[in-house]
Fold this protein.
Amino acid sequence: MTKKLIFSIFIFQFFISCGSEKIKADIIFINGVIWTANDNLQEVEAMAIKLDTIMAVGTTAEIEKMKGKFTQVIDLKNKFITPGFIDAHVHLLMGGNSLLSVQLRDVKSPQEFSKKIKEFASSIKPNEWIVEGNWDHTLWGGELPSKEWIDSFTQKNPVAIYRMDGHMILANLAALKIAGIDRDTPDVENGEIVKNSKGEPTGILKSEAMYLVLNKIPALSNSQKEKAIKVAQEYLLSQGVTSIHDVDSLGGFKVLKKIHSNDELKIRVYSADPLHKWEALSKKEKINNQWLKNGLLKGFVDGSLGSHSAAFLEPYSDKPKDSGILTANIDSLQTWIQKAANNNLQVTVHAIGDKANHVLLNAYEKIIRINNSKDRRFRIEHAQHLSNKDISRFSDLKIIASMQPYHAIDDGRWAEEVIGANRIKTTYAFKSLIDAGATLAFGSDWPVAPASPLLGIYAAVTRQTLDNKNSEGWVPTQKINVEQALLAYTKNAAYSAFNENIKGSLEVGKLADFVILSEDIRKIEPVNIKNIKILNTYVGGEKVYENKIN
């Protein structure tokens, strides 16, 4: 705990003990529409801040009584405030690196794909790796890229660029040579080296096969990590994100501590380590202050829908002999989860296909049944495709569904072709899970998707796909309302990290993390949610982002 934090807590406790008439607010916000996420007082029009903490909420007349000689007064003029958005699934270093690398997310043709990589390659030094990218082959008809698209102008730069879901990469010839991959290289377990009709590697590597190349990429230096984190931080704040759950596992926590010690960290971070490293984390120093926290472990059970590596109970509709891949040894997974839980570590596991979710729920249930009174808050990351019989188990077992709604309007363009009309009924089953009493925490999966909670809310509420072909919503029975989506990005996301006592809602004594929006998101047509502007982002009562355009 920093000296600054200790002083802040001491002063605030002193303030509470003395009564509000003894100490005046540092900042008051008046004449606004403030959605608090507090069931007992859901909407107020004014708020007072002392140091980094909410001093009071209420009417403008009530809050103006807390104005002192040096109090800053901000007239919201009916602007809308929500608690700061908490993104429950971010790859922080990957996201920062993606901003610093070639941008392929919206590329719509093979020609544009090649052109962008050629331009980027010409801007960097020889031997520098080209990474991230986050391409989506469905945008140009579904043909997977090959190394021949880029080899002629990347001889001096190894390339390992992700498909947007992170479960497939394209490597160029230079990268394949470094990894020792050629026509004679056998597939690895739970992975695939894609080869053409002549038996030559195309450059596409799926699931575990990716690591043949990825493990050859030089580790980022601390200075590179710091640069990536700072770039990522600025982007996230501009989206109204005040806290993240970083599932990167790329070794950025040490750098985050340095940034924090230099008072340069402006976003709150809950950091994950790989599940199989539970023993090392159990022996590490535990950090749990208002800015940095560790103690989360992340594992994997399967891959992704787009790469046909998500594990399903029945074969894919477009590949009748393929049911996906279970990437984990279930006995090992069970042991790791049990050991982690015994050491008071929180566990979350990536599961996308219905088989992966079913297997993971079974593993969680075995542990919960041993001692069902312990508050573990197990999570499933994605919980994307569920069988009907498993939906109620999230509530029964108190498993948190950590989901990313933007994926629904992305995958919705093509998912029915891949898994059929019946299985899509419980794909991104937001409403079914809520109706069953489950807790949903929302995130972005950035850089796989934009780190915009507003786009996530738009996706959850409208389910209008990115190709504009589902005006009433893709699987409209799974649409939820705006407040349900807001709760998933605020109060529920805080709960999913054991942080509901300090953030996630705008209540007295909680951190003053909030966002000012250009419109009341609850009262406009849902299709217009994506057009709302983030005007200001505040973290601990400090304005850390201001929209200069509006």
User: Anything to note?
Assistant: Residues 1-11 have pLDDT under 50 and may be disordered.
